[in-house]
Amino acid sequence: MRVLMIAPPGAGKGTQGALIAAHFDIPHIATGELLRDHVARRTGLGLAVQGYLDRGELVPDQVVLDMLREAMVAAEAAGGGFVLDGIPRNMHQARAAYLIGRELRMTADVALHLQADDAELMRRLLARAALEHRSDDTAEVIAQRLAVYHDVTSPIISWYRDRGILVSVDAMRSAPQVGREILAALEAMRPFLDVVPEQARLPVDLTGLGDAFGVTSPAAGTSG
Ligand code: AMP
């Protein structure tokens, strides 16, 4: 089972990613966790990315794509399944992740989209802040992370819809309810995954059409 998750902060991708990984016995590849681990250990990479995390901005694509490649190679050796949590976050990462997957013959079977509205996400993240003290769980930084999600992450959803691998789930309900629905949907798909040959899958748009997405520079799009 090869799953990637697209979800705004607070929608439960960490929780649901762990559930999917345990259920299918596959690696849970969470870029945010990997980055926070570097920050906590004060590695060179951690010191370089800490400011981005603290401000709620995306770290440079190449940093997370290098992490992804390494984790995907390990996942291949472990049987070929994976659940991606927190990547891809923009159109450039989506294309790059697809190309890494194609090279390793393990592109995603399912793009799982967790939907929830901003007011609920803000409420959940502020509640989490009281427990976990993450540096990016302040109201101001949460608002910035939600803005990044709407600007550059959510546009990639239509790319997966066009590929025919999108599954959307209402994540406004409790974690166990959402988890049950996700596992039911993935289990229902499981028998078909290995029997659909690559050439029978929908074509993937790797042209420049998506270039309007994934623009992170504040200067872009403001000239008019
Ligand atoms: P998360 O735990 O997924 O909410 O990620 C926490 C923070 O890590 C984000 O706000 C970003 O600063 C950084 N991050 C995680 N994944 C990515 C990614 N794929 N691309 C860029 N930055 C990322």
Topology:
Layout: E1 2-6, H1 13-24, E2 28-30, H2 31-41, H3 44-55, H4 61-77, E3 82-85, H5 91-103, E4 110-115, H6 118-132, H7 139-153, H8 157-163, E5 166-170, H9 175-193
Parallel strand pairs: 1-3, 1-4, 2-3, 4-5
Helix pairs in contact: 1-9, 2-3, 4-5, 6-7
The structure holds adenosine monophosphate.
The site of adenosine monophosphate has 17 residues, from helix 2 and helix 3.
Task: Provide a descriptive summary of the structure in words.
The chain has nine helices and five strands; from the N terminus they run E-H-E-H-H-H-E-H-E-H-H-H-E-H. It has a five-stranded parallel sheet with strand order 2-3-1-4-5, with helices on both faces. The chain is globular, with a radius of gyration of 17 Å. The protein has a single domain (2-212), classed as P-loop containing nucleotide triphosphate hydrolases (Rossmann fold, 3-Layer(aba) Sandwich). With 224 residues, the protein is α/β, with parallel strands linked by helices. Residues 9, 31-32, 35, 52-53, 56-59, 64, 86-87, 89, 93, 136, 145 line the site of adenosine monophosphate (AMP).
Bound molecules: adenosine monophosphate
Give the oligomeric state.
Answer: single chain
Query: What is the top-level CATH class?
Result: Alpha Beta
- The number of distinct β-strands equals 5
CATH architecture: 3-Layer(aba) Sandwich
Uncertain stretches? 208-224
Give the strand line-up of the largest sheet: 2-3-1-4-5
